[in-house]
Amino acid sequence: MSKLAQALEEGQEDVGREGMSESGHAGMETWDDAAIQKQAREEEEKRAYLDQVIQRPDWDSEQDVAKVRGALVALLDELRESNSFRQQATQGEAARLGQEDAASKNGAVHAHEVTGAGITESHDDGSNKADDSDDEDDDSDDDMDDEDADIEERARYIPLRLTHSERKLLRLVSAALNVCEYTDNVDVLITKTQRRHRMHAQLREICAVLSGLLVASDFEAGQKVVEAREFSDMQDFYQNAFEVARRHKVSNPERLRSDYGKLMYLLQDAVSAEVNAMLEFNPVTPLRTVYSVLHEAGLGQMLRDPRMRVATMEISPMGKTRPQIQAEIRNKERAIKSLVRSFASSATESVASTVEQCIYSIGDNSSFLLASRQPCDEMIHLLEHLFHPEKMASADPAMMLSIVRGRDGARLTHDHRRQYNYVLQSLRLWREISHRMFKLWYLAEQDLLDPDVPYSLRNTGQGLHRVQGAHRVYREMNSIVTKVQRAMGDAWVGSSVIHLGDHNVPNALTFIDKYAQVPRILNPVLNVIRTLPELCKRDHQVKEYIERSFSGVRQVQTAILRDFFRHAFDGSGADNFMDAGSCIDGRLTSAWNWCSSIEKKSYFPVFLLTGFSGFDGQF
């Protein structure tokens, strides 16, 4: 009898005596080879036409003219694909194709200008600077933002996109976790004498999940394992299944929002010394990243190829015409095909598929970066455009950001300039965290699943939590804060304390979950600012309501932004400066506190008119 079976039987006897109660933007589809194969067939036909035309002396027929035309098209395609991207890399044309990246580096983000009709969208080319201090701010942004230049470094933490077979396994794991109540049954307050009972509950719940997964996947193999309780024989299956679920979650933060926590806590217990000794195998394996997969295939040099920037860039429609967008799409597709031919032309079909999968995985990361950083960029521009201390024509009380402790729930006292700097540095901090989110997530999993750093189950004042140190995430966060402080110079306001592994942020999972909410906080506010002018143009009744209640679109937009910049950054959200205030974690706590009181705001009906449904997103 195995150690696991013996432990389960002994635990069951103890429980019987004492009556212990038991208490997926779905990821993108995998790359389809049909388009590439079709293109290859067309190119072969064009080359065949060329050979036939060269051999024929008669050039008068329409058929030969068509063949010449087809041959020329084939030659032009080859010339473009072989030469254009090298020229782009050396002559700077890649910057033109990657307008979104270039715009972000130069401070030319999707912007807003104040007009009589409201805050309308425009494209700020950076020409309307108020003074030299603005130029310094732009330089700071360039210094802060590494952007996407070092693709090789980013690839170390970018999970590989799931294949079709892996998606089938993902659905199996997701279904198992959906019906599992692991944390409800395991994370309960116990005394020291009940520690053995909790370990038995952990084993029982873990074995239930493992057995269910295997039986659903392979009935015969599952039957044997369930009877013998020898889960170690299927170690590769379990490692692969759990790794697929973890990889999918990192790539798609909107997916598995409740199931991922159960999975990580289950694995956290499974790798602990006591439980792992009974299971006799390790269910955790490192995440498969683009960097590791390419280096295993001997293709690591592909990450340094200048064509990678074009092949993996995110194409944003902001401020572009349809022909411009279509041209960028074609350039991106040609870059992908060119890379595949260069690095997998003489290899097997599986290697070519791996190359494509890695390219599209980096592209997925570029899409994530755009979606998570753009809200911060837009909010920073609105702050600088409307409330910059040097740009304000007069000290209009309706435009001042000053807050006073004890008034309107604020727990900090800042004049306009100090509050402006405090909000600006907080938004820049959130942007930098979003930029490094994949790396932070990679490190967070390492901290959570470190058997040498056990957790303690404690009541933190917000319920029962697993309190565990996270030194890897802490070091990375410390470097982020230092970078933002350096960019802000002498304008840093507030505390730089990072809460991690205490009652405020119990563990790395809580940390990741908190900062993954930043786009969910900013996007609803930005949506109101963007859509309100167009809504008033379409609906005269809405326009009359806005003018009657707020004196106009511009006024209500400014009022919403002013209230957000004041009371989403006022130190509120707790009754002491350790739990909220101006610390790194407290800034986000204040923002969530503002979100929780949105129904009490006078402008809340405006949110509802623009389609607002909440800050939580979808589960």
Key descriptive features of the protein:
619 residues; mainly alpha; two-stranded antiparallel sheet; 4 strands; globular; UPF0652 protein; E2_Ub-conjug_enz_C; E2_Ub-conjug_enz
Give your account of this protein's structure:
- Helices cover 63% and strands 3% of the residues.
- It has 619 residues and is mainly alpha-helical.
- Among the domains are: 3-27 and 161-279, no CATH class; 34-89, no CATH class; 392-619, no CATH class.
- Strand 1 (110-115) and strand 2 form a beta hairpin.
- Pfam families: DUF2009.
Write the layout of secondary structure elements.
Blueprint: H1 3-18, H2 34-55, H3 62-91, H4 93-97, H5 99-105, E1 110-115, E2 118-123, H6 132-144, H7 151-155, H8 164-179, H9 182-186, H10 195-217, H11 219-228, H12 235-251, H13 259-270, H14 273-279, H15 290-296, H16 307-312, H17 322-344, H18 349-387, H19 416-435, H20 437-448, E3 456-459, E4 464-467, H21 471-488, H22 508-515, H23 518-538, H24 540-550, H25 553-567, H26 584-596, H27 604-609
Antiparallel strand pairs: 1-2, 3-4
Domain Non-canonical E2 ubiquitin-conjugating enzyme C-terminal: 154-617
Region (Disordered): 1-46, 84-148
Organism: Porphyridium purpureum
